[in-house]
Design a protein that fits this description.
This protein has 260 residues and is mainly α. 78% of the residues lie in helices and 0% in strands. This is Transmembrane protein.
């Protein structure tokens, strides 16, 4: 929707300009002018690119979701490289960052190439479908306030930023429940609850380990790695348990042997 692109551009531009003003330098006014100009040009570019990508497949199978997680992690790493070297004016860090950035770029290109050639592999199970639905809703709801929530941690009130993030996640979960569990019976709903609990526990443990076992210069790198790994483990648990449950429910009931 075009209005969402313009609303997000306005939100991001305003947030960046506020941060620029708080971190005032002799170049602040120049930076604000540049950000205002890009805030007008970027939505037009995004809308043009979106019109070229009308046949994008729906991401719903396990391989597609895993490739999505890899792509998000790789793209985030490249953004952090630009952030560390160009946006913070630390070009001296570029030599150390460049080899890792090149490897990450190769991973990103390979993941997108593979994703474009990955078939759907049939209909996903209930838990995996609900995870995909929740992700789509969360991304749509986060699209506009994402940068304000992120910089609210450092330049605003962290508690309000945290609450805003949790509310957006909760709204995405509500929509996922409403759409994903429509038509599911009580027994399948109980099994789904157990699946999601197991997926969240396994994904949370993997994400926590990803943060605790590695020391990062910027906390965003740890959050990005933890989120990608948490998502990958959670969808793997959902896919495996979906397959097991669907086979059990589809199996014909055993009949007692006739008495002789």
């Amino acid at each position: 929707m075009s209005w969402m692109v313009w609303a997000a551009s306005l939100s991001y531009t305003f947030s960046f300009c506020v941060v620029e003003w708080v971190l005032h330098t002799p170049y602040t006014v120049d930076d604000i002018v540049i950000r205002a100009c890009t805030g007008l040009v970027t939505p037009l570019l995004i809308q043009w690119l979106a019109r070229q990508d009308t046949d994008a497949p729906t991401i719903s199978s396990l391989p597609q979701m895993l490739l999505f997680a890899i792509s998000v992690w790789a793209l985030g790493q490249l953004v952090l490289t630009v952030y560390d070297t160009a946006l913070l004016y630390n070009l001296g860090h570029l030599a150390g960052r460049l080899p890792g950035a090149l490897v990450t770029a190769v991973i990103l290109v390979a993941a997108r190439w593979w994703a474009a050639r990955t078939p759907q592999h049939g209909e996903p199970g209930l838990a995996l479908t609900s995870i995909g639905t929740g992700l789509r809703w969360a991304l749509a709801l986060f699209f506009i306030p994402a940068l304000a929530v992120r910089y609210g941690v450092n330049f605003g009130t962290p508690l309000i930023a945290g609450i805003a993030g949790l509310l957006i996640c909760a709204a995405g979960a509500v929509h996922a429940l409403r759409e994903g569990l429509a038509g599911a019976g009580p027994r399948r709903t109980m099994l789904w609850t157990a699946q999601i609990a197991a997926a969240l526990l396994a994904g949370g443990a993997a994400g926590a380990a990803a943060v605790l076992l590695v020391t990062d210069t910027y906390y965003e790198a740890g959050v990005l790695r933890a989120a990608a790994l948490c998502f990958a483990v959670a969808i793997a648990v959902c896919a495996l348990t979906d397959r097991w449950i669907d086979r059990r429910l589809a199996a014909p009931p055993k009949t007692a042997a006739p008495e002789v």
